[in-house]
Amino acid sequence: MGHNIDISSNSIQALEYCQENIFGNFYCSENELTSLRHGPKIVDGACSYSQNKITSLDGLPQKVDDNIFIEFNHLIENYESLFLLTGNKDILKYKH
Questions:
Q1: Given this model, what pLDDT does residue 89 score?
Q2: According to the model, what pLDDT value does residue 71 have?
Q3: Which residues pair with 63 in a beta bridge?
Q4: Which of 43, 44, 48, 49 is close enough to 69 for a disulfide, judged by CB 3.0 to 4.6 Å?
Q5: Cα Rg for the chain, rounded, in angstroms?
Q6: What is the domain count for the chain?
Q7: Per residue, what are the HEC states of the chain?
Q8: Would you say 83 and 70 are in contact if contact means Cβ atoms under 8 Å apart?
Q9: Does the pLDDT of residue 35 top 80, yes or no?
Q10: Residue 80 has pLDDT above 70, yes or no
């Protein structure tokens, strides 16, 4: 496993200038994100976007080697009962 990136609890509102490839886990929880655009495209570990204000899965990484945690956001209206995507290697054939 490579290096984890943890930018949680920083009041981040956008993922502009984020690395495209993360060689480890990517933690971006407890921020002010409303969108996943400009985020990483490949994460070689787990990915956490919990406790933000995300309203859409647009911009979700194309490949994640572990779980994606995205609970406690504003997805409920568009994605009922979606709180945790598990075992999702290469799942992202999702199109909104």
A1: 46
A2: 87
A3: 42
A4: 48
A5: 12
A6: 1
A7: CCCCEECCCCCCCCCCCCCCEECCCEECCCCCCCCCCCCCCEECCCEECCCCCCCCCCCCCCEECCCEECCCCCCCCCCCCCCEECCCCCCCCCCC
A8: yes
A9: yes
A10: no
Instruction: Specify the amino acid at residue 7.
Output: I
Q: What is the mean pLDDT of residues 43-53?
A: 95
Query: C-alpha distances in angstroms, 31 versus 7, 12, 85?
Result: 9, 5, 19
Taking residues 71-75, what's their average pLDDT?
85
- Residue 54 to residue 76: CA distance in whole angstroms: 10
CB 4 within 8 A of CB 29: no
| Domain containing residue 91 | 1-11+20-96
Please answer whether residues 19 and 44 qualify as being in contact, where contact means their C-beta atoms are separated by less than 8 angstroms: no
Question: What is the token pair recorded at 3?
Answer: 């290096």
